[in-house]
Amino acid sequence: MKKILLFFILLSYTLIAQNKVKVDLSNPNSTIYTHLYFLQPDSFEPEKAAQTIYGFEGKDAEDAAIKLKKILDGKGLKVDFSKIPKDKFYSDTTDYKIGNRYVLFPYRMPEVYVERIGDSWYYSSETTSKINELYKRTFPWYTEKLQQIIPEFGHEKLFKIELWQYLGLLILALICVALFYILKKIVYLILQKVQYWIIHKSNDKIKLALKKLTRPIVLLILIWFLKKELPSLELPLDINTFIFLALNIMVTVFWIYVFLKLVKVVMDIYADYAESTHGKLDDQLVPILHNFLKGIVIFVGLLKLLTLFGIEPVTVIAGASIGGIAVALASQDTVKNLIGTVMIFVDKPFHIGDWIEAGTVVGTVETVGFRSTTVRAADTSVYQIPNSALSEMVVNNKGLRAYRRYTTNLGLRYDTPPELIDAFVKGVRKIIELHPETRDDAFNVEFSGFGDSSLLILLNVYFVQLDWNIEQASKHSLHLAILKLAAEIGVDFAFPSTTVMIEQFPEKKSIAADYNIDFNRIQQIIDGINKKE
Q: Where is the Mechanosensitive ion channel MscS C-terminal domain (predicted)?
C-alpha cells in the first residue's frame, strides 16, 4: 500500500513539474515569459528561450535570446507581466506599432516587441535584426574583456553584488568627481561664449544665473556618462532597475532646474531690453511671462516624473486635459481675465504710466496683472479693472497722443477798441511762438466771436510734453505771460455781468474805460516780448 501511495505521489509531482513551465508562444504574455524564465539562473535552458526568436535557429537563436535578456537587464528594464496582454489576437492601437504586436517598453526601447506570426507569437524580425546593434549600444566595448581579467575571488557576492562590482562603482564615483570639477569650468566658459554671441553684452545678474545653470548641466552630463558605463558592471536586474529609476528621476529634476534657470536668464535679458524701450508695458510683462514659463516647465516636469513610475503619458495628458476643462468651467471669470490679459499685451492699447479714460475710470495705469489692471485716479484713489472687461472697453489713451492740445477762450470787455484786440492777439501769438513747451508751427489765436458778456478770443495750442504734471506747469507759465501782456497794453478781461446805461442820468459819469491807444507804445511792448523771453 505504501509503495502504491509513493508511486502516485511521484507521478503527480512529475506531472506538476512538467506542466509548471513549458514553452508557450500562444500570446504575448506567454512568449515573453518563456523567453525570460528559461534564462534565469535556476531554470537556465537557452534552447527553450531561443524558440521565441524568429528568423534564427540553433546556436544563433540562443545567442540572440541571451543578448536580448542582457540588454533588458543592462538598461534596468524590468518586465511587468501583469500589464502584458494574454489575448492571442491582441492588436496594438498605439502610434508605435500597428497590428498584432506588443511593444514591451514603447517609450524607452520601441525596437523590442513581439508579433503574431501564424498562430504563434515571436520576437519580431526587426527586433532580432537589431539585437547586435542594441547590444553594442548598451554595453561598452570593454565589457567582455573586463569579465576575463577579473580574478575568481572578485566574483564573491556581498548583498547580491559581486566584489568587483563594488570596486567598479567606486571607480565610477571617483571619475565622476574628477570630471565634475573639470567640466564645471568648461561648461561655464561655453555658456558665457554663447550668451555673449547672442546679446553681445553681460552683467553681474546674468553671470550669476549662468553659474547656477552650469552645475545642473554638468550633473546631467555625468548622469549620461553613468548610464552609458553602468551596464558594463552587469549588476542584478533589481539593482539596475532601482539605479536607473533614480538616475532618470535626477535627470528630470535637473532638467526642470536647468529650464527654470534658463527661463530666468532669458527673462533677465528681456528685462534689460524692456528697460531700454520707451514703453513701460514691456516691463510689466516680465514678471507675468516669467511666472507663466515657470508654470509650464514645472507642469511638464511633473508629467515626466509621473511617467517614470509607470503611468502612461497619454493617460496623464488626458487626465490633465479633463482636469483643465473642469477647472476652466469652474473658474470661467478667471479664464476670461487671463485671455483679456493676453489681449492687452498683444494689442498694447496703453503702457504703464499712460493717462487713460476707460468707461467712468480716468487715471494713470500703474500695473497690469494676470487678473486685473490697476489705475490710479487724479485724487490718488485706486481702481482695479478686470482685464476681461478692460479688453472690451473703449479706451481713450491720452498717453499715446503726439501732443497735448489745450483750447480755451479769452473773454475781453465789449468796450475794448479793435486796435487793442488786434494788438493783444498778435502779442499772444508771439508768446506762443517763444514758449519752450508749445508747438510754434500749429496754434490758433483768433477773435472768434461775441459772447454773452465778452468778446471771445480763441486760444488753441499744443504742448509737446505728454506728462500731465508738465502740461499743467506749461499752462501756468503761458497764462502768466498772457496776463502780463494784457496788463502792459491795458486790456481788461470781462466777467459775466449786465451793463446798465446811466450816461443820461444827471451828475453821473460813464463807466467806459479810458483806453490809451498809442500804436508806437503797443508795438514796442509786442517787440519787447522776444527780449523778455
A: 408-492
